[in-house]
Design goal:
With 395 residues, this protein is of the alpha/beta class. The protein contains 18 helices and 13 strands. The strands form four sheets. A six-stranded parallel β-sheet has the order 5-2-1-6-7-8, with helices on both faces. Strands 9-10-11 form a three-stranded antiparallel β-sheet, covered by helices on one side. A hairpin with a 5-residue loop joins strand 12 (333-337) and strand 13 (343-347). Helix 1 (18-28) crosses helix 7 (166-189) and helix 7 (166-189) crosses helix 8 (199-205). The longest helix has 24 residues, at 166-189. It is elongated. 34% of the residues are buried.
Length: 395
């Protein structure tokens, strides 16, 4: 059965995380995604631990369902081969610092002359234009500059980056969304285009109510740990044996929660009668809630609250999360075997299609493992020329 993007041909020049994550999403959806890497070295993340039989688990986690070929884009012959491939491609993805592809003579302005319908997805720290466009960026830098770090952590004296590399990952998701949107536009008009995504822009876009609160109140939001600035009770409570999270996000749920806790006086207390009043008295509210929740274990409370329809959950460690029944039931942990025969577990595909289901069919490729096949199929390069390209260090 075809996947949603079956037939789409993608040349993925990206490395490390943001761009590769985008390329992986396109590959998961069925696009033929060819990862083009520097001969002898490959993507920098191939050197990141931990390793499985000398192959990076980091690299494997964001490059599945792709093919890999090596090509030296600094060589003239490498450039010509790439241009030949662009003629048959639908999409180019790169996450170099702006200006790099222009110096190589392979930027969008050049490639669109070769293939006017090409969609060129460029993911960078600060975008293709603007005062910071040529500055280097990493996930932690944009989390800090974009304000996310300033609202994350237990309090304003202990600000923290998000544990996942959300700056890279979100940029990868937005780049994939932009590319797919450009594909739809091309189907309607025949036009290709440049898709310019900045990690910093993406960080700003996911701040949601923090920006709204700043412009309404004129006050910089601060970290609040596991509390919510606008909804209460919505956070972590202490139980008899550990902690858990509870989200009674409206007045009706709060009244029901109070009944379950055996303290209906809380529901009629003027300090807690509306969500706004509960937000204003959140410290006092959670002190009372903790006093009730400390009487039973986390598992006991989760069973009781779920039966009554109160949103709640355990604070899982990763080892617990990967074994959650819902995670298992929805195939969100999958196992694939790479070319070396090593079985590797990784997250599954979170979008479930009823007509065009996706799957993880191929582990991340070894460096250049598909070079010969790709050059033959895309460029008609036979074994004799292949040997010459290898000896000339073009591939």
């Amino acid at each position: 059965m075809n996947k949603p993007l079956s037939g789409l041909k993608v040349l993925d020049l990206s490395r490390v995380l943001a761009g590769p994550f985008c390329g992986m999403l396109l590959a998961d959806m069925g696009a033929e995604t060819i990862k083009i890497e520097m001969p002898g070295r490959g993507d920098d993340s191939r050197g990141y631990p931990p390793f499985v039989n000398e192959e990076s688990a980091y690299f494997m986690s964001v490059n599945r369902n792709k093919k890999s070929m090596t090509l030296n884009l600094k060589s003239q012959e490498g450039k010509e081969i790439f241009k030949e491939m662009v003629k048959k491609a639908d999409v180019v993805v790169e996450n170099f610092r702006p200006g790099t592809m222009k110096r190589l003579g392979l930027d969008y302005e050049v490639l669109k002359e070769i293939n006017p319908s090409i969609i060129y997805g460029a993911c960078s720290g600060y975008g293709q234009y603007g005062p910071s466009s040529e500055l280097p960026a990493y996930d932690m830098i944009v989390q800090a500059m974009g304000g996310l770090m300033s609202i994350t952590g237990p309090d304003e004296n202990h600000m923290s980056r998000v544990g996942s590399s959300i700056g890279d990952v979100v940029a990868g998701v937005f780049t994939a969304l932009g590319i797919v949107s450009a594909v739809v536009h091309r189907q309607n008009t025949g036009e290709g285009q440049l898709v310019d995504v900045a990690m910093l822009d993406c960080q700003m876009s996911i701040l949601e109510n923090a920006i709204a609160r700043y412009f309404v109140n004129g006050v910089n939001p601060k970290p609040m740990g596991n509390r919510h600035p606008s909804i209460e009770p919505f956070g972590e409570v202490k139980t008899k044996d550990s902690s858990m999270v509870v989200a009674a996000g409206n007045d009706q749920l709060f009244v029901k929660l109070c009944k379950i806790l055996g303290d209906e006086s809380m529901a009629t207390d003027p300090s807690y009668q509306t969500n706004q009043s509960r937000v204003e008295h959140m410290d006092q509210l959670f002190e009372s809630l903790n006093g009730h929740f400390e009487k039973k274990s986390t598992n006991e409370w989760i069973a009781i609250l779920r039966e009554q329809g109160i949103p709640c959950g355990p604070i899982n460690k990763i080892g617990d999360a990967v074994n959650e029944p819902s995670v298992i039931a929805r195939d969100m942990i999958v196992e694939v075997t790479n070319t070396k025969g090593d079985a590797v577990k990784m997250p599954g595909i979170p979008i479930k299609f009823s007509k065009t289901p996706c799957s993880v069919d191929k582990a991340a490729p070894l460096l250049g493992e598909d070079t010969a096949e790709i050059l033959l199929n895309w460029c008609g390069i036979d074994s004799d020329r292949l040997s010459k390209l290898q000896s000339d260090q073009v591939i």
